[in-house]
Inverse folding.
């Protein structure tokens, strides 16, 4: 039996559903490409309540999170968060996640839906002997994402809270929407500016708060160009932004250095997997994650081979057709010696080689798209 989210009835009525991580969720509402373009040019709203959420509390919470995550939790102050990794003892990536410090000795962590049960077990198992309490709040807190250049303006209108404009990237703030207590975190999986909206006290089976907040966001946002968005647009947008999908681009067989996620690995502290990662950094990665842009309008897909001068040098992990640059884009892993930006390679598509160029990510023009662009 598929698991449900708070807005399951809404999605079954309005969305085109697909199975994902044990849930039946909307793949699209009006279409993957129009939804993606709405996020790039105005705003989109996603229900991401399938993701895992846990509260970490107790006097040794910081010490505990330093031990189980790769980034440096000690740098966080109240209202700030960071991207981080859970690693196994061999240095492989168990999951990528967000860690937010809500106040001293109280943290929120958000992790991937496919790993919800496993991550929670891992967090609990590695808390033994420490004065820390871990609570899975996934089914009691709805989670929406409002993304795009008009997202912040929309949320200021909805909350009547102008402070949101100065919340930093990876910051978070408490506010209210239609009488419901919500936590807004300024991150996103699309490359665009925006907030995740965590609706407190909105359990599955009693979705009134979640529905009220969702409907208010839609009512205020639609005149601004807000569109309902599904998993298809989410995947296309994250790939255009060069962001990893767990289980596809990263997994326990991948090290952070191979995935080019070394910026969230702080080897000066002790954490699970550190010793192996110290060795891996000294040895150097034999393969690395790269961006690939097709030279013709063809679509690379997961598992396709990357070839250089007749030799297989890597594999595509994610691929799609980008509506922004009107050609196929991909991420994958290639041998270190083939990873230089600008290098031409071939991707085997149905037994024929198609030319591609190694490129940096994101794939789009960051002066026109993405969170760092200047919005008038």
């Amino acid at each position: 039996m598929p698991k449900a989210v708070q807005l399951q009835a809404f999605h079954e009525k309005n969305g085109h559903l697909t199975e994902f991580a044990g849930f039946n969720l909307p793949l699209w509402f009006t279409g993957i490409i129009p939804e993606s373009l709405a996020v790039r040019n105005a705003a989109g709203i996603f229900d991401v309540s399938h993701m895992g959420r846990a509260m970490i509390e107790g006097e040794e919470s910081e010490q505990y999170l330093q031990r189980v995550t790769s980034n440096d939790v000690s740098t966080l102050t109240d209202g700030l968060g960071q991207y981080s990794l859970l690693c196994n003892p061999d240095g492989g990536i168990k999951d990528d996640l967000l860690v937010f410090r809500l106040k001293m000795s109280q943290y929120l962590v958000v992790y991937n839906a496919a790993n919800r049960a496993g991550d929670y077990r891992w967090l609990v198992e590695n808390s033994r002997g420490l004065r820390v309490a871990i609570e899975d709040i996934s089914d009691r807190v709805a989670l929406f994402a409002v993304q795009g250049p008009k997202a912040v303006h929309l949320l200021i209108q909805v909350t009547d809270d102008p402070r949101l404009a100065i919340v930093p990237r990876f910051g978070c703030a408490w506010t209210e929407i239609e009488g419901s207590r919500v936590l807004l975190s300024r991150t996103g999986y699309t490359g665009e500016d925006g907030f995740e909206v965590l609706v407190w006290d909105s359990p599955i089976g009693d979705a009134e708060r979640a529905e009220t907040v969702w409907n208010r966001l839609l009512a205020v946002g639609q005149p601004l160009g807000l569109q309902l968005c599904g998993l298809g647009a989410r995947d296309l947008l994250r790939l255009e932004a060069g962001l990893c999908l767990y289980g596809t681009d990263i997994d326990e067989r991948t090290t952070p250095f191979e995935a080019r996620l070394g910026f969230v690995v702080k080897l000066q502290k002790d954490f699970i997997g550190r010793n192996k990662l110290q060795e891996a950094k000294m040895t150097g990665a034999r393969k690395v994650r790269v961006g690939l842009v097709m030279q013709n309008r063809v679509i690379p897909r997961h598992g396709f081979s990357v070839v250089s001068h007749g030799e297989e040098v890597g594999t595509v992990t994610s691929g799609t057709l980008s509506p922004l640059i009107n050609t196929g884009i991909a991420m994958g892993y290639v041998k270190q010696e083939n990873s230089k930006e600008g290098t031409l390679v071939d991707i085997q598509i149905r037994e024929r080689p198609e030319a591609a160029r190694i490129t940096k990510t994101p794939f789009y023009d960051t002066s026109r798209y993405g969170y760092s662009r200047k919005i008038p």
About this structure: Residues 141 and 200 are 5 Å apart (CA to CA).
